[in-house]
Amino acid sequence: MDDRTSLAERFERDRGHLKAVAYRMLGSASEADDALQESWLRADRSDISDVENLTGWLTTVVGRVCLNILRARRTRREDPLDTYGDRVGGAEEGDDPEQEALLADSVGLALLVVLDSLAPAERLAFVLHDMFAVPFDEIGPMLDRSPTAARQLASRARRRVKGRTALPDADLARRRRVVEAFLTASRGGDFDALVALLHPDVVLHADRSVVPTPEPFVVRGAHVVAKGAMAATGRALFTGVALVDGAVALAMAPQGRLRLVLGFTIVDELITGIDVMADPDRLRRLEVGVLDG
After folding, report:
1. Which H/E stretch holds residue 238?
2. What average pLDDT does this structure show over 58-66?
3. Which CATH architecture has domain 3-75+118-162?
């Protein structure tokens, strides 16, 4: 068996692992597939006669390709979101929204949001080391940095991922149960469950980037707010629970890119207020973290 055949077989054998690396680096299944294709083209042109660990070497090839994609990625135009529409904002033509949503759930949507906020070098160092156990001795040269510098990048990213909250654990857990129940009911289209979670006089505020109106949009009453949530079940596919500015919230992030946040005011197990944020400047100022467990 020659080196080319061995490499092709190993690439196919490791495809699942390599796709996982690329997806965590890029946050998009379609972009991850593109990165794997480019990685194979690069690998196939390389001299592998001295490579002892093909899986490790392929992992670094994928990492380099993803790093280039992240560095070249341009900020996409952000369109206003129709809060009560039933489209999935941000999905690209040709993508499978349900498959993307399953991948996001498997990794953790909040984690993808935090990773998207990191500098490319931080993201690479954190993903390769903390998620795939690639040594810093191998990560450093990929970034033209020392292993010590790569370790510092991963540490900085780790602090961002963890997030901070001043809430006691019991209060955080209680609020999380309510918010998770709201998301479950929204995804399942369970109107009665939504109404049961909302205070009768609940007030929903949406900024002007959510709904294209001259002024912020305000909705009052449990039934009206629940109907709005029912109409946005498609968007709920790309929504997950996150720690936002120290509080439990919902973040909508198709392809791992934050597009909308729902903040909640909760009193006595009932949601009394919902703040829907989509203004890009406002979103950039938010500190998003991952809830433990």
Report:
1. none
2. 96
3. Up-down Bundle (1.20)
